[in-house]
Amino acid sequence: MVRVILPQHLRTLAKVEGEVSLEVVGAVTQETVLDALEVRYPVLRGTIRDHVTKRRRPFIRFFACEQDVSHDSPDVPLPESVAKGAEPLLIVGAMAGG
Questions:
Q1: I need a surface site. Which of 8, 30, 40, 83 has the fewest CB within 10 A?
Q2: Per-residue pLDDT of the chain (98 residues; tens, 9 = 90+)
Q3: What is the CATH number of domain 2-93?
Q4: What pTM value is reported for the model?
Q5: Domain residue limits, the chain
């Protein structure tokens, strides 16, 4: 099981509390995790990544093992500790302004 922590506004939209556990088939990548997330919570389709291009939306960031993996290719495997559920994948709404 892969653990995912969503920002508050997406937890509210998906009607979940805390982190989400997902069963991911095959390699655990940003793409496969987001695919599983959108299958389980269809209301999140288009909120984290674009409907057509599947690219990450602006102001959304991904963190794995305290590392920003937002600019990594979506098909690069996530760290083993995330794949095994020891560490969560954090999806963060970036803050702008000053």
A1: 8
A2: 999 999 999 999 999 999 999 999 999 999 999 999 999 999 999 999 998 999 999 889 999 999 999 999 999 999 999 999 999 999 998 776 66
A3: 3.10.20.30
A4: 0.92
A5: 2-93
